[in-house]
């Protein structure tokens, strides 16, 4: 019995101490109303330090009881000394002599509330209130999401706030329990709902997140793109270090946002025909199945006619007899299609399935889309061919980066995730990172496709002008057509640019994915996204002090 009592005293005094401290401040809350509470969210710096990403802010609501006010004009003058006051509006409220409550202001800071309280103004009440606060303002807004009303319930509406709402939400009924009754209850009852309530520790690195966001904003401004997005991930574990979109929003001011579509995390919820960055997946499948090698050749006439339809290279030109390295280096659609045809419909479709294309990744963010890959089941060669270079199938960016990470990490499909640990109210922290990895291609295939992608950067990407002499980078660009939802087919003047790369190439610590929707004044992704990618790569190499690998 004594052990149980000591254990429960620990739970009551230490684990749930904040609850009882809150109860001691009951005089600041409205009668019969609990003070709103919610768990915190933290970023994690490269050194392991936790930085507040979402917390609670405390202030005061100022209200008046009109029937208790003796001189409204005098009261207005007194209040105006400490806060902005619309006198006509105040007088209208103050003259409602039968009204028991009129709210004047919310979220007053403590110093202002203290000064007003010291005046002991008759008919004036101050109530403590709490609200969700995001110290970084726009930083990682699409990851964090925001808290808002769903009917009368204040709850997580997007991002982590929504996905982990059951962890972050607090059961205010716990405040009503009797202190001594709780001490003498069993441990399970003492814990109450605290066994599921906690704070979130994320893998988002705030400096990396900030750098990605500033780079994306510059990218969007430079090319007047409709939208740009990016992800920085550990290809070995699936940890997300940064995820961002532009335009973005401030979750502190979400109610003022005039375009609610900005709340949508397109990196997880939208699908795109991502174009030629899929060619390395097709090539890896061909190498893994043994139907091609890097030195295998084919005759490139510049076009292929399949099922009565013709596909061509981006410039419509043929190269004659070329090898598979050139298929990636020159981004030849006919070459990718040739590999797919050699694989055959069933094997090609199975490899794409193994790479997770067309399925949810399981990332811990809400409303994830699965992708659209039904064309692979058509049985026609033309759909097989177009899918080989990223057209005719639509994928989410998070799905795409997961598949591409398998090219560099030894051939394993990982689960992208943002939260690494949950710090529970009961006093312990639990890791929520899984270590499940599914091998989709052989390690030798991973090494070979990586070597080919390094050569793309060193010799072909803008003629090798961005080759890094001391660090190997494996990368590929993509310029995809945007489908016309009205007339079918594709727009002739609208494109999706994409870029991915991982480094150090043969033991990658980072994979970066970028995309831009309808960038203006630039034809290909090499012209729009190479510089931003390299800017991010150099930053990460310096920030994490990654040693040279060549």
Structure report:
The chain has 550 residues and is of the alpha+beta class. It has a domain at 206-415 and 434-543: DD-peptidase/beta-lactamase superfamily (Beta-lactamase, 3-Layer(aba) Sandwich), CATH 3.40.710. Helices cover 34% and strands 23% of the residues. It contains 21 helices and 20 strands. Strands 1, 2, 3, 4, 7, 15 and 16 form a seven-stranded mixed beta sheet that branches. The chain has a five-stranded antiparallel beta sheet with strand order 9-8-20-19-18, sandwiched between helices. Strand 1 (41-44) and strand 2 (50-64) form a beta hairpin. It starts with a helix and ends in a 7-residue tail after the last helix. The model is unreliable at 1-17, 20-29 and 174-193 (pLDDT under 50).
Oligomer: single chain
- Low-confidence segments: 1-17, 20-29, 174-193
Please report the first level of CATH classification, the CATH class of the domain at 206-415 and 434-543.
Alpha Beta
C-alpha geometry: elongated
In angstroms, what is the radius of gyration?
29 Å
Estimated share of beta-strand residues: 15-25%
What structural category do the secondary elements indicate?
A: alpha+beta
Largest sheet: 7 strands, mixed
- Named CATH architecture of the domain at 206-415 and 434-543: 3-Layer(aba) Sandwich
Percent helix: 25-40%
How many strand elements?
Answer: 20
DSSP helix count? Answer: 21
CATH superfamily of the domain at 206-415 and 434-543: DD-peptidase/beta-lactamase superfamily
